[in-house]
Every structure is written in C-alpha cells, then in structure tokens.
Amino acid sequence: MIEVSFLQGCMQLAQGYVDVLKLFIVAVKTGYEKKIPLDELNQLVQDCPVNSAGRDLMKEELELRREWMAVVYGMMEALNNNEMGDQETTSDTTTISSNDSSQTRVTQVVDSMLQLQRYLQEEEVQSGGEQDSIVALTNLTVEQALQKLPNLSQLMDELESSPMEKAFLTNDIRVALLTFKVIEEEKICFEDRKGSLGPNSEIPRPPIKGT
Question: pTM, whole model, 2 decimals?
C-alpha cells in the first residue's frame, strides 16, 4: 500500500487532490501502530516486489517517500507523547532520518504542528467553544498554517533560493496537516451513535472481495 499510494499520491497532488496521499498516511500510521521501526518499514517498502512506477525510483523520490514516512511517524510519536503529558519520551520505532537537513526539517514541522494545535485550542477556549479547534485544524491549508506559524513562514522565505528544499518543506507541512485529518476521520469511523468508541466497533471497509 505504501509503495503504490506514494506514487499515486504524488500524481494526485499535482492535480490538487489528496485522497491517495491520505491512504499513504494511513498505511504508514499502521506501521507505527504495529511498532515497526521506521527504518525497517522503509526497507520493507524498498524491498517490495511491486513496482508501480514501472522503473526504479530516482534518489530524490526515495528521499521524499522516506521523509513523508518520517513526518507521519514523528507526528504520531509527538501526539502520543503529548496525550501522555510527556513530550520528551521517544520510541524505538521512530528514527527521523540520517540526513541532517531532512531531520531538521521534519523536527521543525512536527514541533510547529504541536504549537499550531495548542494555538487553536487556546482560540477555542477564548471563543467560548464557538470555534472548534479540531475542525479548524483539520481544514487548514498549508498557506493558512504558515500564516499562523511565523517560524515556518520565515524558514519558507529563506528557502526561496532552493526550490527543492522549499518543495520538501511545503509537502512535509501538507503531510503533517493531513495526518491530523486522518486521525480525526478514523475516530469518527469508530464512534457509535452515542459519540463514544464502541467496544465492538470496526473500521468500515469497502465491499470488495478479499478485503
């Protein structure tokens, strides 16, 4: 799923769609939840006999896929630690990257997403609940997120002379925002009529043979 959804997701992004990219996030998120170390999952994807591109991926494509996977793992780790009130704890499953620039970029994006989440939660409190922080967060565009995050906006400006680095950062932010959205959509899938998680709930699946 990761191998196929990555390529299809890239093509969809060029047309302004993110549905397949969300499938990519779900697949990577599953790897995290199964406690598969990031590097091991990345190697499993590279060793996958399926070659949906019909060719070997270029170095830049492999790096982009690895970085998107790192963003999802980083987001899951940070959100889990945040819920437990321990933002310093790290997991054996999460190794951001051996590439310094990639690691710095992913870390900045993940930290900024948590900052954004807190900012929107504060706005919800100040509005007396009229502004739902979850709805606001899951509907933000990259541009809107940058307006609320001066540090990332400044970093984006500094990368004007490096189109490749700027593209990586833009897509990292998009993947991080969509990770929030995927998590909330999964919660909705599990909710019963009373709005709580039912003990026997299952994720709705398409009526396709073999699924």
Answer: 0.83
